[in-house]
Every structure is written in C-alpha cells, then in structure tokens.
Amino acid sequence: MAQNTRTVPAGTPTNVTQKHAKGGIGESTLRPDGTLKVTGEFAYSSDMWHEDMLWGQTLRSTVAHAEIVSIDISEALALPGVYSILTYDDLPAEMKNYGLEIQDTPVLANGRVRHHGEPVALVAADHPETARRAAAKIKIDYRELPLVTDEASALAEGAPLIHEGRDDHHIGHVPHPNIVHRQPIIRGDVAEARKRADVIVEGEYVFGMQDQAFLGPESGLAVPSEDGGVDLYVATQWLHSDLKQIAPVLGLPEEKVRMTLSGVGGAFGGREDISMQIHACLLALATNKPVKIVYNRFESFFGHVHRHPAKLHYEHGATKDGKLTHMKCRIVLDGGAYASASPAVVGNASSLSVGPYVIEDVDIEAIALYTNNPPCGAMRGFGAVQACFAYEAQMDKLAAKLGMDPVEFRQLNAMEMGTIMPTGQVVDSPAPVAELLRRVKARPLPPERQWETAGEGADVRALPGGLSNTTHGEGVVRGVGYAVGIKNVGFSEGFDDHSTARVRLEVINGEPVAMVHTAMAEVGQGGVTVHAQIARTELGVTQVTIHPADTQVGSAGSTSASRQTYMTGGAVKNTCEHVREALLEMGRRKNGSYHPAWAHAELLLEGGKVVTDGGEVLADIADILEGEAIDLELEFRHRPTVPFDLVTGQGDGHVQYTFAAHRAVVEVDTELGLVKVVELATAQDVGKALNMLSVVGQIQGGTIQGLGVAIMEEIIVDPKTAKVRNPSFTDYLIPTILDTPTIPVDVLELADPNAPYGLRGMGEAPTLSSTPAVLAAIRQATGLELNKTPIRPEALTGTL
User: Under CATH, which architecture does the 8-30+498-637 domain have?
Assistant: First the structure.
C-alpha cells in the first residue's frame, strides 16, 4: 500500500506545552501564545510558506446584480507566470454550492452575480503581483439586473427573486421567497394587555451593518497530496463545518481533505463561513502545487459576512406604577445575497427580543431577507445585539414617561431565576439582572471635566475629538446611560451541539504528561490555556501538551456562541475524568492488595500522585503507568434543546442564558457633534471564572466592540447600486486605544448547576449592553432621540 506523504510547510502549528507547579482552574494562568503574539513571533496563517508554492487570487464582481454574458480569460492566461485560471465551468464536482445550513452559495458565480464582490474566477501564479495582474486582465461582460436592496423592494409584487426555485426547509413557512426565515413568538394576549397599560411607547430603530474587523485577513495554504487529496492549513472558526462544505465541491471523500488550524488573527463570527478555503484547494488540485491565498484588507471586506443591519419596530406598555404590561415588535434583518447563518440569527433575535425582563404578553415577529446587499451572518452577539439596542431604548422612554429612574424601572421588571421566557422556557439558573444593574449604578462616577485637572492647559486626549484638538471644553456636556442585556449560550433549537476531546496520559522522562487534542479553533479566546488548566485540575499533572487543532480528531463545533469553554472545556473535563478513572482502576489492579484505601477511600490525583481525600499518598502516577499510556477520545453534549414552534415560537430552544450590564459616561461636544466615552463600567455573571484574567479581557474586548458600533462602525452600502462604499480601515473606523475608555469590571460567579464547573459562557454578553448604554448616555447629554447606530456628528448637530 502506497504511503501518503505530507510535506509540512513552514509556519505549521506545533504542540504547545505548558509546565507549571499549579495552573489549575480558577487561576489566572498566562496564555502560552501570549508572549509570541506581542513579540511578533507567533505564526499566523498568512505567514505559512511552502518552497514551491503558487499564489492564488480571486476575481470578484464589480456590480451587485447582473447576468454574466461572457468571460474572456485568454489575455490573462497568456501572462507569463500564470499556471491556472478557473471559472464555474471548471469546477470538478456535481456539487457546486456550499453553505452553513442552506447550500445556496456558489463556489464561483454561475451565470449571475447576486452581490458586489462575489467571486467569479480564480487565478494561480508564481507571484502574488502576477496573480493580481492576471485577474485584472480577465474580461467579464455583465448585463445588470434590477436590484433588491430593502424590505420594500424584496417583497414588492413582481420583485426579482434572489434565489429562484428554492427547495430548502424554510421555504414552506415563509410568505415570500425573498424571506430566508421567519420566526413569530406569541404568548398571552397583547390586545387585552394593552388595555391595562397606563402608558404606551413606540419606537422605530435602525441598526447599521457592522464588520468583524479582525486584524488577520483571511488566508491559508492548500497542499496537494499523493493520494489525490489535499492538506489545508487555514485560519477558521470551525474545522469540521468547513470540511463538510469543502469535500463535496472538490469531489473528494472527507478523509482525503485533511485540515489543520493555522494561527488565527481574530474572528468574531467572520470566519464561521467559507472564504478562501475551497478556492485554494481547487487551485492546488488543478496545478498539483501548493497554493497560498492571502486577502488584503480591501478584499477581506468582501470575503466574509458581516453583522445583519436591522430595522426594528417596538411597542411597550406599562402601568403607572412601572410594571410592564406587554411588548410587540417586528424585526427585519437584511441577510444579503446568501443565507449564511441568517435562520439562526432570526431565532436568536426573536427569542431574545424581550430582553431580560418579565413580560407575560408578547407578539413578536422576526424575519431575514434575501437582498443584493453583502451577505450577513455570524458576529459576536448573533441577533441579540440588534434587539438589545432597541428594547433598551424603549426602557429609557418608558422610564422617562413614567417619571421613574431608568435603573429602578429596569430592576422592577427584571427577570430572575424561575422567570418564564416568551418562548415558554423557564430560566433555571441564576439571573441576577437587578444585582448587575445595582452594581454598575453604585460605582462612583469619574470626575467631570478631567481635561482641566492636567495642570497647565487642557489635555486634549480627554476631550471629544481627542488629538485633533477641536475643542478645549466649550459646549461639552456630560451624559450617563445604563443598559442590560441577555444572550443565549451554545447552539440552540435542537441542533446536535457536541464537542470531542482526546486525552492521552503517559510518562515522558519519568514525569506524567497529559496531551489534550481537540479540533477547537483558538481565535484569541484563550481556550488552549483553559484546556491545560482543566487537565491539570482533573489529572493532577503539572505538564500538559496541547496538540494542534485538526480534523484527525472529532469535531469541537464552532468557536462561537460563547460555547467553547462550556462545550470543549466540558469535553476535556469529561475525557479527563474517564482517564482518571482508568488510571485509578489500573492502580487498584496493581496496588489494591497493599492498602485498603484503594478500595474504600475517595481517591484524588494531585501533584503527580494518587492521594486519599485525607491527603495520604498511595502511589506516583508514573509508577502506576509503568510505560503504558491511557488514551481516550470522548464526546460531550449539553442538555437537549428543541426548535421553536413555527407558529407560536414556543419551545425550550436555548441551553443557557448569560447577562451583562453597563453604565456609560460620555462627554459630548454638542456644537461639533463629537463624543468622548469617558468610562464604560460593567458587571457580568460568569458562573465560574476558570481564568479571571481571560474573563476580564473578554469582557473588556466585547465592551469595546459594542462602543464601536455605537459611535463609529458601519459598512456603508450605496442604496442605488448596492456597492460597498468604505471597504478599508481608512473609511471603516474601529476604536483604537485612544478611543478606549476606562472599563471597570465587576464579575459575579453564580454557578449554573447544569454546566461544567458551574461556568457560564461569557464572550458575547458584553457586546450587547455596551452599545445601548453609550447611546443612552448621549441621549441624556443632548436630549435627542437618536434611534440609529452608529451616532454620527451630523445627527448630533442637526446637519444631516
């Protein structure tokens, strides 16, 4: 039988070993990749190199909706150094589409493009500049088609269908083919409840399209193998999901597509979909040479999905003593040209649209549209962000109309353990919403006009406009705002959410060593650190090796939905527990006759030894193993969920809920429309902090992403052409360190009895409430309604 040889490229991930005397759960163990990253020594996927590799380039559509009349590659193919050019007609398999849930996305456009920047052709050449020049020489004749850009044009009579002949499982319950998915939630009787309301407030809200803006652009290296397969080294969020989409369009069995995670420079949902993976593999197989693809920043804006822009209409009622009576809302999400994760985002937006409040009577509808705008999908917060922005604005409106303090009004209506969600699901773990609000409100406010305390002259860094030196304090007004949000954890609605961990315990150089192997994508969340901490805690060893993530082990699911510490951490814990029991059973067989404690005592593994719960040492782990190894691979699942009913929205659709609150302090130059966020204090329940340093870092990072979409971040799509206007960090602005305020963090640890160690997924929740808190503070400072994100200067100065 022929051997399958693999040439490992430079920059390939290697085992990461952590060796500490302690370093178990609950400690702020340092990240093994931290020093490498801050010193520039860490190998990202864009650093991958193979001696004889080619460079891939994607040609993308310059229009948003058009028929492809012709493609002429002759001039490009004649360019010296070009090895291959591929179009739709060159695809090797019967399956030519892919997708997370609905396979509606073509590998390359087939006679029609549906959005600006859609891939049309691929080039492989011996130099990246040659590949770019060749792509520019490909001539495409387009015949432009009518555009669908919003709900009115999508659902109008005779509207162009973005996808004709849909046969996916959602088509049977949507009222129009340009609706990807629809989820209503009906509970109680809103008409009757409205009669009990002493005050009613309504609001129309618009949430802009946000980009994940990860700093490491999409990149990877595909290497053809002797067995006709391919080895792919890539930055992604979900190796096995990629594999299931890649293999069919290559016409290969999954075992011939071997994937290894390369260094990931951030993700935030933008790497959950396929970008360059299939394209690199196609070019590698076509040329029989390794092919590397690295997007530049411009292409990255077209190479991944974005956060769904949304239009939200809310109505709330309350009694004069401040109790909420009812809520009615309609949420319209723009999914763009392809489905991506839109169905799941609709489920989240609808089921979490009420917020962390007790409201018995609700009428909710959420839909996602197909349009010719850029495709939208997963981003940190996943549908709950848009809803939180709207319902928190409503809470402020109600409090103002009732003459109540906005925090006290929220606390009066706050859910708690035992609350029934609008879906009928009982919240069966701690829900400290009122306490989180109390904590952020109780924190001392930062001093006002801090720029005046810097001695001589004003410190312009503390002023709106910062180093642009636009003001020295004239017209600057302070505002304070509050918000709280609710987010689900893990995959929902009946999805078989599971994770796999392989753990091997053996003796190396006389010392017991645990090797942990999962397919978890480390995208910056610190999972590799936590896995080592869990192994040390459960196996009592000091040395833990983390195997590179690849598809040679079972799926770990996606690094998204705040699920990895819960799910893959749970899988590591579960497998370690079985390894521990196997080790103790081995010890009982070998040593049980020498000490009665082997049969009767509760035995623990600590410091490389087997000890009783009283601290008596029975044996060294190394002596029990005696050259043998224990090697187990096991799956872990959370408790089951069910899909929401398609008519009533009822069902236990979520695994766990997580909560965070923010208080924003801003200073606004009302004359120039400039905003300085002075402080964003936050409080969050994390169940159990496995690594407090990582927890605080995640909370602060999520808070800043929420700040970004509040006052600066938005992808601008021209409504007349559906073209992206600002695909660069020159025009798409993200917060820098100079925009980052003080972020005091208050962490609660109220254990969830259903979760490993009692932990609560926590990476997304801070992204929810930071946005509406900032907007609430700006509203207080200016007196303006401000129902759209992001807030731009012209909205504050009235010069729109």
Answer: 2-Layer Sandwich (3.30)
